[in-house]
Please model this.
Amino acid sequence: MKAFAKTAGAVAALLLLSAPSFAVMKPGEKLIPFSLKNIDGKDYTVAMEEGKLTLTVAETVAGETKTVKTHPDGILIDFWATWCVPCRRAMPHMQQLSETYRPAEGQAQGGLRVLGIALDDAGGKVVKPFYQKLKITYPMLADAPSCAAAADIAATAKDMKKRYGVQEIPVVYLIDSTGTITHAHVGFKEEHIAELDAAVKAVLGGAAR
Model:
């Protein structure tokens, strides 16, 4: 019996190791609110307010905090790290999506916002110089926000990693205006490009900026 148990355990472990990796959160699940600091010093908070997907960007200048709220049609979250090769391969496509679908300056409704979530232990200290070498313009959130976040809001990259079930990277989640995840994938393969493009168009109704 012991020999059988050991064999069964070994087989189970092998199957687990050989099984494909998937994001723990699945399409149909709801947004987990979060608040993190971009490498430019601004705080980005994503939550549902009055039933709308809401992105709040706060910046403190000379002791005065300025806040801008927008309601995008979708938010694309990309979990990555500077040491992750597949993550770097995926970033040009994330940039393309951002350039194609991001809202115009001053536009409060609609469009797609792409947000990178950097999982490097050193946070913005290593992410900022890495970011500056690349032709990437979408926000890279790496550190805790300036102001204390509510208890139900993820306020560190580590907490986001846990709450969003991230075990391997890159992990990509697309969230629509109702706060529902409509697409999720782990890793970066060529087929992910077409799948993600189709999912984005479905969320935005095919409208480019």
Notes: The CA atoms of residues 77 and 179 lie 12 Å apart. The chain has five helices and nine strands.
